[in-house]
Amino acid sequence: RKAKVAYALPMLFIAILISFAPGTWGAVQAVKPRMNDNIYEVAQFIQESSGPDTIIAMWWNDAYAYQYYAEQETYFDGGNLNAPVAYWLSKFYLETDPEEARLLLRLLSCSKDKIGGLSLGEVKNVTRALREKRNRLLNCERETYLVLSEDDLKLVWLFDWYNSTDFLTPKSGRNELNPYFYKGEYVVDPRIKDSILIRLYFSQDVPG
User: Fold this and answer.
1) Would you call 142 helix, strand, or coil by DSSP?
2) How many CB atoms lie within 10 A of CB 130?
């Protein structure tokens, strides 16, 4: 019996440590809800300016506050963490090509609930075999607000971690995001001081 206890205690300790690794449920539970004036002002601006089927492109950490104050859907939140969404959104955050970035964000805005198991080739490839599936995933008419806070700009290591195919090995070793590469309508409003807010509109005209 002592041997079993001696074996069980280290295993319990390891399990506790793993549960608080980035991206796990324990890590999500350990994060406290956050609210500040900047979140409120940006969310209010979106609520006042957006249409009925708008979606907010953002990381999950502040999603509940934006859902409540902007009264709009977000890509995901602490209650519905989605590995494919985290993967594709991380690729977007680290993408340096404007057209590739727009393609990734269009994919998430149009089909965030349908992208499990999707490969990068299926998104980018326009050969006849993949064109129908690709266009079906990218074809929508949807207003999107991209929100990047100062805190998000410090999470490059996390996005790089999610950007890896196995969610274990950082892929690029990048140490900064490229938030200004994106082709969209930057929102300029005196209330918005510590966030980057970009409005985009995806029409049914799918590129390629």
Assistant:
1) strand
2) 15
pLDDT at 171: 59
153 pLDDT higher than 90: no
162 phi, psi to nearest 5 deg: -70, -25
Q: Strands (DSSP E) along the chain, which ranges?
A: 55-57, 73-74, 142-149, 185-186, 195-202
Look at residue 115 in the predicted model and tell me its pLDDT: 92
Q: Which residue has the tokens 């506050």?
A: 65
CA atoms of 144 and 184, how far apart (whole Å)? 10
How far apart (Å, rounded) are the C-alpha atoms in residues 150 and 140?
30
Distance of CA 82 to the CA centre of its chain: 9
Per-residue pLDDT, 162: 81
Determine contact, residues 206/124, Cβ cutoff 8 Å. no
